[in-house]
């Protein structure tokens, strides 16, 4: 027995094939639309990520206080100054309410940066290189002496430097200590008295 020959396609079969292809295209269209990312979608995704981060930061700040200013331990820098026979040198702890935010001993100069209770920066720079040359190099070429003051039984020179900066300088032999910052004289005196 032979099998019957396949019947030729009729118009109805061709329409059925076209209808099936059209249905496939319609179902593919939403999938393609889902693959296209709009800026709004990216913004929503980022918001979902940032909201928990902001909540954690807010809780941390509320419960643990100000964490925006990092403090450092100046002991490594101070030990370098001790090895260089620099004395007297600043205390390893700041005055009450102050923070030590940087400390470095490099090229024969000890630098310790402080943050006052009013969030103003003050720096102590101390060296064995001594003299007005060091002070002018630190402040500015136009820096000049503006008088003297006694703090804790020690005579300090008052200097003017860059705009809005004031400085106190103490020299003893080759030893020079410079306290400088854009602060009032009372903050400089506080630090000078604390370190003396």
Biggest sheet architecture: 7 strands, antiparallel
Please name the CATH architecture of the largest domain. Answer: 2-Layer Sandwich
Radius of gyration over all CA atoms, rounded: 37 Å
Structural class: alpha+beta
Please trace the helix and strand order, writing H or E for each element.
HHHEEEHEEEEH
Average pLDDT number: 80
What percent of residues are in strands?
25-35%
The CATH C-level name of the largest domain is: Alpha Beta
Oligomer: single chain
The domain tally reads 2
- CATH homologous superfamily assignment of the largest domain: MucB/RseB, C-terminal domain
According to DSSP, the number of beta strands is 7
Cross-sheet strand order for the largest sheet: 1-2-3-7-6-5-4
CATH topology of the largest domain: Phosphorylase Kinase, domain 1
What is the helix fraction of residues, given as a range?
Answer: 25-40%
What topology emerges from the helices and strands here?
Elements: H1 11-35, H2 39-64, H3 75-83, E1 99-106, E2 109-115, E3 121-127, H4 132-138, E4 144-151, E5 154-160, E6 166-172, E7 175-181, H5 185-195
Antiparallel strand pairs: 1-2, 2-3, 3-7, 4-5, 5-6, 6-7
What is shown here, in short?
With 196 residues, this protein is α+β, with helices and mostly antiparallel strands. It contains 5 helices and 7 strands; from the N terminus they run H-H-H-E-E-E-H-E-E-E-E-H. 40% of the residues lie in helices and 26% in strands.
């Amino acid at each position: 027995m032979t099998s019957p020959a396949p019947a030729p396609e009729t118009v109805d079969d061709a329409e059925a094939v076209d209808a099936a292809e059209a249905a496939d295209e319609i179902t593919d269209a939403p999938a393609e639309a889902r693959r296209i990312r709009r800026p709004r979608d990216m913004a929503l995704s980022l918001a979902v990520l940032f909201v928990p981060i902001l909540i954690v930061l807010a809780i941390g700040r509320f419960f643990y206080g100000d964490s925006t200013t990092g403090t450092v331990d100046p002991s490594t820098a101070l030990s370098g100054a001790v090895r260089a026979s620099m004395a007297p040198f600043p205390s390893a702890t700041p005055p009450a309410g102050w923070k030590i935010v940087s400390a470095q001993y490099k090229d024969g100069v000890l630098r310790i940066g402080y943050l006052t209770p009013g969030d103003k920066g003050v720096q102590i720079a101390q060296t064995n290189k001594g003299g007005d040359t060091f002070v002018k190099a630190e402040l500015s070429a136009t820096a000049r002496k503006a008088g003297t003051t006694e703090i804790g039984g020690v005579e300090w020179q008052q200097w003017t430097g860059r705009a809005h900066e004031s400085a106190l300088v103490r020299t003893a032999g080759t030893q020079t200590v410079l306290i400088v910052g854009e602060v009032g004289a009372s903050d400089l005196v506080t630090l000078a008295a604390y370190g003396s």
